[in-house]
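Working notes for the structural subgroup meeting. M.R. asked for a predicted model of this chain before we commit to crystallization trials. I am recording the input and output together here so anyone reviewing the notebook later can reproduce the run.

Input as submitted:
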Amino acid sequence: MIELISSMVPDALAAHAPALLIAIPMLMAPIAAFMPSGRIAWILSILATGFSLVMAIVLVSQVQSIEGGAVISYAMGGWRPDAGIEFRIDALNSMILLLVSTIGFLAAIFSWPTVLAEIREAKTAMFYSAYLVCFTGLAGVASTGDAFNLFVFLEISSIATYVLVALGASRDRRALPAAGNYLLLGTIGASFFVVGVGFLYAATGTLNMAELAIRLEAVQDNKAVLAGYAFIVVGLGIKAAMFPLHQWLPNAYAYSPSFVTMFLAATATKVALYALVRFLFTVFGLEFAFEGSTLIWILMPMGIAAMIACSFQAVFQTDVRRTLAYSSVAQVGYMLLGISIGTAAGVSAGLFHLVNHALIKGALFMALAGVVLTYQGTSLQDMRGLGRSSPWTMTAFAIGAVSLIGVPLTAGFQSKYVLVTALFEHGWWWAVAVVMFSSLLAVVYMGRILEAVFFRAPTNPNKRHKEAPLLILIPLWILALANIWVGVQGGFVAGLADGAAASLFIGGAS
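Returned structure, recorded in token form:
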């Protein structure tokens, strides 16, 4: 399918795919803002993200056709990379671009019923404009080969996200303080990151990440480099909701518009984790003196703490969106644990779970959006009996839930199996026990929800049968079936993750 779609794209477009993937949604954003109708802005968002998805497919195909782990280097304006803006595409970020574009396209399709219900009509055009800006920023983070431009794109996506979260105030006033908290911690994270980049520039005289990797080899003991490394890890850790730097996430997910929650849960932390992996393994590398210590004494303990602490917190939540929010932090812990192994197999396992978790949380939050739209509630009591009144919506939710738990024949099982295998190969058998324990906690908190949905009588006996609109059900079931497809035949996604990890270890340890 990848090759078929790629072959249908004219060579003139394919040659500029790295730039067009970002330029089209960026140009569509101001156009959407001035549309007289929110519906037109919605259609523009579908067209823009759909075009970006095609360009992402082209890039995946191009990267897979390159022998020897080479990369696609696209110099904007013809400037040489270390002087101008370079988009640098390899197996890692082509996978992330495909993920962000796929989720972004499905999210755009599904969004209209929920936006119509939760956002004031006068603001819908601006809402879609902000969404396209956010999408542009996330795609830019995953494309750029320049450390400072990564910061720029990160802030473009973040500022748009703060606006999107705050617009939830028309449904829930708690969205405003949630957006404020998100803005505060996001600004701290961005400030840490850009200060770290400044230290690296002072030590090396370049911002191009490929050139940084070369020049850092000669100045690894420089105090500016060590300080820059620490600032970058903390800054990106906040953006990725790394425990205990995750305090912005639960409220942002719980009180945002339903569409925003779904899109953020499936993409935002994933892109920040990509950036962290890019700096750890490409810019600094395992030869960097602090790298091994960071993996063993920071990422691994934080990952394990997130898996246990946030799973426990999820157990005691009464609002399903908050349950899934704390679960998201716990699942970030799984990804960090895989990355902290520091081998190609471990990083591949972490990246595999990153993609699968996007499919899982996309389906879960999309189903919840349908519940909010039809029944105006996401508490555990509100979920009672929905399996009878909304069987299609809640069956898709159940598929996402069992995938999150890690039931065989689901995407979640596949990525946990790969992670456990990598842990055993590395001799971390005790970490396997932590994975099993965290999965049991997932059985508890997701089991409570599934019991209320399928085995409890509705709180309101007059609750009528009402499914989510087709615009929600179609992309919802695409994600639900994707969870089963990856669980049964996960070779494509696992292959992308293996290729992405291998691209980080070319010429290095494995």
